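A further point concerns the way the authors explain their paired sequence and structure data. An entry of this sort, consisting of the sequence and the corresponding backbone structure tokens, reads as follows:
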Amino acid sequence: MPYIMLQSSEPTAAPLQQPHAPPSTISAEIVSPTLYPMQLSMPLPLSPHTTLHLQITPLATSSLTFITTTDPSTSSSLSALGSFVYSMPNRFQPFEPLSTPLYAVPGSIDFATRVAKILARRTGKPAYVGCSAVFGNYGIEEEMAGVRAVVDGVMGVLDEGEKD
């Protein structure tokens, strides 16, 4: 479904000296949607009964990723919102991206921040990461394997998008 983008030829601030200025003209052009999210599901490497779900939206100037997990013990109800983190490359220290939590939940903020920083560093673009993945009973090895799986999946989608 095409969208209509309106453009105004009038400057944003009109001068006060012209009280009787002619009305501005507005032109419209049809624009196709530019958001095409990709969805991936994969089992966690060390816990095959737990599934990691990703929704990746590659944008021209950034990327948007949502991460969640499911396992047989959870019901089929909706998952909680989780944390939402923004990270951007650091021009002065390229190996230390800057990040800020936009919405923080104690159980998922570390995972979301880690993934957002890695994506910002690898892509050279800002990254938005939403995470409601739960690694409560798993060890640090499982969480790090999850980070690797997420980053590999996201980078695969983003690299494929740049080839097209």
Q: What stands out?
A: The radius of gyration is 21 Å. Residues 1-16 have pLDDT under 50 and may be disordered.
